Every structure is written in C-alpha cells, then in structure tokens.
Amino acid sequence: MAAKPENNFVYPNDVDAFGFTWGKLSLTVAPETNGATKFSGGVVDLPPGQGHSRHNHPGAEEIIFVISGHGQQMVEDPEGNPVTQNVGPGCTVFVPESRFHSTLNTGSEPMELFVVYSPAGPELVLRDLPDFHIIPKAGR
Fold first, then answer.
1. Residue 79 burial (CB < 10 Å; 0-12/13-18/19+)?
2. 19 assigned to some structural domain
3. How many domains is the chain built from?
4. Is the separation of the CB atoms in 41 and 102 below 8 Å?
5. How far apart are CA 105 and CA 59, in angstroms?
6. Structure pTM?
7. 62-92: per-residue pLDDT in tens?
8. What CATH number is attached to the domain comprising 54?
9. Is 60 part of any domain?
10. What is the CA 72 to chain-centroid distance, rounded?
11. Is 65 among the domain residues?
12. Structural domain contains residue 5
C-alpha cells in the first residue's frame, strides 16, 4: 500500500484494525497509513478481563498511554524481573528497547490505550500470530 502523506487526521474507525482474541489495534500513524517514517502508533482496545501476554519488540521502544479503563501493566526491569503496577487514565508507561511487557484489563469497562512504537514496524509482526485477523474499517 502506498504511503498517504496527506492523511494527517486519522480516527481509529478510518483504518482496518488488527483483531485478536484479546482485543484490537487500530494503527492511526504508520508508514502505510500516513507516511510516518520515525514511529508508528495507534489505539488498542481491550475488553474487560482481556489483555496481551508477555512479549517484546526487539530493537524498538514503546510508549503506552492509558486513555480509559483500569488494568495491570507489567514491564520487566533490566535484569528481567517483572514489575507490575495498576494503571488508569492519564498514566504513561515507557517500555525500553526490547523489554518484555504485558497489559491486562482488570476493570469492568473496556480499556483504551494509545501506543507508540519507535522505530516504526515492530507491530507488523503481530500479523504472524495465530489469532490475527483484519477488522475492516467502519468509516465515519
């Protein structure tokens, strides 16, 4: 897909989402979405009781910003020990390069996150997961 540099204003419903048994990721900033070259990002929706398991993004850093909902966020320390904290709206989580992490929605409402990957690209490996499927854009 060709880059679309003129596409500077993107809502999650404007793009096809990556669907999983644990939720979905709508990439609203990415080379294929709007020509971003240094990072990619988008909105993650996690239903109550759902989350993504421990994983990492080799060679990339990640920022996770909690828009709504409550959960538990784990980020391993430099020695590989899991450090878990309760997170809620307004919390920013920094995941250092290649560090393992996981998120679980512990609330009774959906949890919405905004994630940023730098450099762009590590989110594309999610397409290789067995439960991956495309959720067609809803449009506005």
1. exposed
2. yes
3. 1
4. no
5. 26
6. 0.92
7. 999 999 999 999 999 999 999 999 999 999 9
8. 2.60.120.10
9. yes
10. 15
11. yes
12. no
- Residue 107, judged by CB atoms within 10 A of its CB (0-12, 13-18, 19+), counts as middle
Tally the residues of the chain. 140
E strands of 48-91, at which residues? 51-55, 61-68, 71-76, 82-87
Segment holding 42, helix H or strand E:
strand 40-46
Nearest to 28 by CA among 92, 112, 111: 112
Cα distance between residue 29 and residue 118, in whole Å:
11
Residues 90, 24: Cα–Cα separation, whole Å: 20
How many C-alpha atoms does 106 have within 13 Å on its Cβ side? 12
Give the separation between CA 85 and CA 71, rounded to whole angstroms: 8
Structure confidence at residue 1 (pLDDT)? 46
Residue with tokens 């940023």: 116
For residue 34, the enclosing domain spans 14-107+116-135
CB-CB neighbours of 102 under 10 Å: 18
Residue type, 8: N
